[in-house]
Design goal:
By secondary structure, the chain is α+β, with helices and mostly antiparallel strands. It folds into two domains: about 180 residues, PAS domain (Beta-Lactamase); about 100 residues, Beta-Lactamase (2-Layer Sandwich), CATH 3.30.450. The strands form two sheets. Strands 1, 2, 3, 4, 5, 6 and 7 form a seven-stranded mixed beta sheet that branches. The longest helix is centred in the middle third of the chain and has 17 residues.
Length: about 290
């Protein structure tokens, strides 16, 4: 573009592209729910997609393309390997008014807390359902790939979801299905997953919003089982605190205590460390448990 246009001409084009074009329904939808407006990029290039999982997905999809489109009949989810745990496959229903999930990745289920396979987009409810429906309908109309990045509702322990949405075409050239790679961007969550000790993140009402893999393994539950429960209900270990997470955060307070728990009929001791952190402008408890023997 710079070879044929002067800088001032390019600046004029940029001015037109960033100028407000009337009522921004998407921004208003998210702002009314206390969330930042999403980012949406149609026909994204490699530079637009920074997440390595999304780039890997983009490369696999490229191999499927015939005349620039992905035929629905040729798709095989097994070709995506480990990415399948972050994949969603949808089909339009009711003439594109809604969308049914034919596949819903296990890791998305763990983050969200519910397997949406067999359910519809409209069942999410609230602003996020409206956004999904609008974006998928736009994919049907535009017949093009789209990248989106959005903040989920606050009951989901993810900073933002990054998604690459790919239309799959039937022999008549219409969008028959939609394939989505949906990956979370959450630096705090990524760090907690690396810890060998059980770690829980709790809301101010002491309900579990996240448990790392070590916690799921040691206390034998799945993420979806734990979300919304109290720590005691999930682990058998009570949380006894007199501090709100906001107070712990502002005063840099850390609480250490030795507790007893019973696993497989054996009484074990553990050290429980409770601190607080901030995530998307909200304070949460962070509970780390370290088993120290019988």
């Amino acid at each position: 573009m710079t070879d044929t246009l002067k800088d001032s001409d390019i600046a004029d084009l940029v001015a037109k592209s960033v100028a407000p074009t009337g009522h921004d329904a998407v921004r208003q939808l998210f702002n009314d729910a206390g969330a930042r407006a999403p980012e949406v990029i149609w026909s994204p290039g490699t530079a637009d997609v920074r997440n390595p999982l999304l780039r890997q997905f983009q490369a696999i999809v490229k191999g499927y393309k015939v005349d620039g489109r992905v035929p629905a009949k040729s798709l095989r989810l097994e070709d995506f390997g480990g990415l399948t745990e972050w994949l969603m496959l949808l089909q339009p229903v009711e003439d594109g008014a809604d969308f049914e999930y034919l596949a819903y990745g296990s890791s998305i289920t763990d983050s969200f807390g519910m397997d949406m396979t067999g359910h519809r987009t409209s069942e999410f409810g609230g602003y996020i359902s409206t956004f999904f429906l609008g974006l998928y309908r736009a994919v049907l109309a535009q017949k093009a790939c789209v990248y989106s990045e959005h903040e989920p509702p606050r009951n989901v322990f993810v900073r933002v979801w990054q998604r690459l949405i790919v239309p799959l075409f039937d022999e008549a050239g219409e969008v028959a299905r939609i394939l989505v790679l949906n990956v979370p961007d959450n630096e705090l969550r990524a760090g907690l997953e690396l810890m060998v000790d059980p770690v829980f993140v709790l809301r101010g009402d002491e309900s579990v919003i996240y448990a790392n893999r070590a916690a799921q393994s040691i206390f034998r539950f799945t993420q979806r089982d734990a979300i919304g429960q109290s720590l005691e209900a999930a682990t058998g270990v009570p949380l006894e605190l007199g501090w709100a997470p906001e107070d712990m955060l502002s005063q840099h307070k850390i609480d250490d205590s030795v507790r007893l728990t019973i696993r497989d009929g054996i009484v074990e001791r553990l050290v429980m460390t409770v601190s607080a952190t901030q995530h998307r402008d909200e304070a949460f408890y962070v509970v780390v448990m370290r088993l120290i023997g019988t």
